Amino acid sequence: MSAQEPRTVTVTGAGGQIGYALLFRIASGAVFGPGTPVRLRLLEIPAGLKAAEGTALELQDCAFAALDSVEVTENAARAFDGTNVALLVGARPRGPGMERGDLLSANGAIFGPQGAAINAGAADDVRVLVVGNPANTNALIAAAHAPDVPAERFTAMTRLDHNRALAQLAGTLDVPVASIGNIIIWGNHSATQVPDISHGVLTGADGAQRPLPDALAEALGGAGKVATWLDETFIPRVAKRGAEIIEVRGSSSAASAAAAAIDHVRDWVRGTTGSWTSAAVLSDGSYGVPRGLVSSFPVNSRDGAWEIQQGLSVAADVRARIEGSVRELEEERDMVKSLGLV
User: Fold this and answer.
1) Mean pLDDT of the region 49-67
2) Packed helices 255-270 and 17-27: angle between N→C axes, nearest 10 degrees
3) What is the dotted CATH code of the domain comprising 7-156?
4) Given the residues 145, 162, 189, 199, the one annotated as active site
């Protein structure tokens, strides 16, 4: 396929805040590069169509050189026909009094049919990123309804958690975000996620690298204070940052979620360089995570495919946290199995 042939990108929940923050960046060339035309398909439920149509008008008015076309539809078969990248943003939020089973059932009614539509009509090279929560298990549901699409093409977004971790570390050390590498988010995109700095590196202005734990010990006054900071400040703040934003902003993360989705898909399509990143991908059994779960790992992208970074040592306390997050993923999987969704 030539670099100039248009790529089709489908965004669900396109009339929402994340969709609004996401679409203009895709149209500007942030994913495939400015030289590759993009066809946008905006999928919405009837109540959201007008908002999506308004966004489509604005996209046209931006006169992006990379935007080949934009189409709004409520028809999933049309939305996913020939799609190369599917960003599944729209999801049922947890309402008052909803149990986790109710939430998973409601989202199963969304992601099951979308997975079937992807199976029926998407391009052979389709890549799927689930943003709508509970993202890991929604990805599992979508993949289960797309038996003809390789399951590893379905991923869930923990890049937002990864980016949040980088930002917290950069602020604490008073260094540029780009100087920090090899951070990991393990497990579920939930409060049980496991931010891990043990393999992190800090690159100085002279290009020299040093272990991130050493840099933190120097900044915070010793290894003991680092451990306290990680347990009491860093890990809880990264894991619960979404709730913090809702409390302050009055609504959930939008622009930061959109930026993370762009980062995830861009790296998936164009490859990673330097340090690894984090993504929720289909487990192959690495690091003791049961096969078939969609779990976050340290990953690299090569030749358009995610690869789990192998051979890393995992400290006992981090391992215990990972096991807790994996238990949650197993509980969600078992629940959706009992509901007949996978």
Assistant:
1) 97
2) 40
3) 3.40.50.720
4) 189
**Which pair of structure tokens corresponds to residue 331?**
């509980």
Q: What pLDDT score does 56 carry?
A: 98
Is the CATH number 3.90.110.10 carried by domain 159-334?
A: yes
Report which of 275, 341, 278 is spatially closest to residue 308, judged by C-alpha positions.
278
Three-class HEC string of 227-272: HHHHHHHHHHHHHCHHHHHHHHHCCCCCHHHHHHHHHHHHHHHHCC
Query: What are the structural domain ranges in the chain?
Result: 7-156, 159-334
What is the distance between the alpha carbons of residues 296 and 308, in angstroms, rounded to a whole number?
9
Average pLDDT over residues 102-110: 90
Q: What is the pTM of this model?
A: 0.95
| 145 catalytically annotated | no
Q: What confidence tens digit (pLDDT) does each residue in 139-173 have?
A: 999 999 999 999 999 999 999 999 999 999 999 99
